[in-house]
Amino acid sequence: MKKILLLAILVLLITGCQSTPSDKTIVVGASITPHAEILEVIKEDLADKGYTLDIKEFTDYVIPNTSLEDGSLDANYFQHGPYLENFNEEHGTDLVSVTIIHYEPFAIYSKKHDSLETLSEGAQVLVPNDGTNEARALLLLESAGLIKVDESAGILATVRDIVENPLNLDIVEIEAAQLAKSLPDVDLAVINGNYALQEGLNASEDSLLLEDQESFGAKTYGNVLAVRKGDEQSEKTLALLEALQSEKVVEFIEETYKGAVVSLLP
User: Fold this and answer.
1) According to the model, what pLDDT value does residue 137 have?
2) Topology (CATH) of 2-104+222-263
3) pTM for the complete prediction?
């Protein structure tokens, strides 16, 4: 009789555990800076609504999307809209943006020059090698009067689309994550905002030229919260959106990054 009773209790315990799975954890992939830092701000707000926010930090631009596609993540926050669209085309993924959160100005940095006017012929310049970010970097170099890019190349321009290069600059494409680390070895580097911040560089204070907030780049390259297509109205997505679109987040961005990150929240 005791054995039967114990067995019944065990069955009830197992059944109870299986019938009440926890689906209140939201797993979001993010770049370390500023994305993961911004997400940390909303942890408490989500907890008040019964959700646990699990932030997975990434240092590259590929795995956060493949992990979202395969279901390892509920959302990601690290990329701008054009990169997401280009990634979908190249990898056959079906990811969508649900909101634009902020904009990170691209900037030109140097450890060897105090001005772009001191550049000599053949100076070495680094730009990111990933889709759309390279074009953005080249457009910034063009705005500085250093090169001219074929207009027809649009946001997918590469070094092969440079039609004028008066100083014969040696423009080298490398992985975006390596730009700031390689800066001391070259004349200039055009660096993504998040990677600059990770290396202690503030675009509004440390750069030779900052992308204008009214430029094509500023209006095009807002960083987005992305989810799998079909999850735009899921409970987790809506909870994330409500928490992110708050005055608290706007104030955190403004006070923490001082122009190196610009809020685009409504």
Assistant:
1) 95
2) D-Maltodextrin-Binding Protein; domain 2 (3.40.190)
3) 0.79
